[in-house]
Amino acid sequence: MGRVFILGLTLAAIWLLLSGYFDKPLLLGFGVASVATSLYLARRAGVVDEEGAPFGLFPRILGYWAWLGGEIAKANLAVARRALALEPKLSPRLIRVPMTQRTNAGRATFANSITLTPGTVSVDLEPDRILVHALADEFADEAGIAAIGARVAQAEGAGRRAVVAEGAQ
Amino acid sequence: MTDGFLDLALVRDLASWALFIVGSAGVAIGAVGIVRFPDFYTRLHAAGVTDTAGAELIILAMMLQAPNWLVVAKLAFIGFFLFFTSPVATHAIAHAAWVSGLKPLLGPELKRESE
């Protein structure tokens, strides 16, 4: 029920910011009705869970995104240098990185982070590993990518997570 | 804010133009990389530069030019959703290529070998 409440607040905020109507009672009423309809349908479809509305990742995920932004900037420079170099000196590799996240939302965040960082793309998911294509040796840094995964697992929060992570190592 | 040496509008224009130029360079470099890199998987990495540095920096630059906070919020939504959808799209086509059996070129010699 708490999850539905937070989802409702989020939808209402998005409706207000996208429409820009703050003082037209009729339109605000329609907004409330549309938020309520969306909530009803989402509950009926059974998607308001840890995967469909992963609010458990907040607020820790915000710090993670800021850190990831810095990593993306660094990787962008490295890939841009290769795109413009006279001899790009590529050395593509396929590597497998362990996936220690507890939740599906956390795993999706990890795989997305790998793809979002230029120089590495997640190609395939195995039960507890991700197959990553790396542009060159310097991007095929398994320890570095596993460190990203550890930060995602940290953002997922404590609890059962710690046990899973230790078991996987 | 209206006149004087440190004109806020001027600072905003300078910052947003710098971001526009760097972001456009990111888009262009990504395009150059797509042409120059040797195979499908390596080209995805070049497209990643356009997706991240290019798109997000240009959106940041547009936020600095926005006439009011509502427009800033809408641009922030666009940036936020791009942040999630572009890697999903990249993964979808990479995974489709992998599943359909396209082998990447590997190693410094760029040989096409089975894994």
TrEMBL record, chain A:
GO molecular function: monoatomic cation transmembrane transporter activity
Keyword Cell membrane: yes
Topology of the protein relative to the lipid bilayer: Multi-pass membrane protein
Keywords: Cell membrane, Membrane, Transmembrane, Transmembrane helix
Subcellular location, record wording: Cell membrane
The UniProt record lists the keyword Ribonucleoprotein: no
Any Gene Ontology CC annotation: plasma membrane
Classification via InterPro entries: Cation_antiport_E
PANTHER family documented for this protein: NA(+)/H(+) ANTIPORTER SUBUNIT E1, NA(+)_H(+) ANTIPORTER SUBUNIT E1
Similarity comment text for this entry: Belongs to the CPA3 antiporters (TC 2.A.63) subunit E family.
Stated name of the protein: Multisubunit sodium/proton antiporter, MrpE subunit
TrEMBL record, chain B:
Source organism, top-level taxon: Bacteria
PANTHER family: ANTIPORTER SUBUNIT MNHG2-RELATED
InterPro entries linked to this entry: PhaG_MnhG_YufB
Keywords on record: Membrane, Transmembrane, Transmembrane helix
Transmembrane segments: 14-37, 76-102
Gene Ontology molecular functions: sodium:proton antiporter activity
Pfam families given in the database record: PhaG_MnhG_YufB (PF03334)
Protein name (Swiss-Prot/TrEMBL): Multisubunit sodium/proton antiporter, MrpG subunit
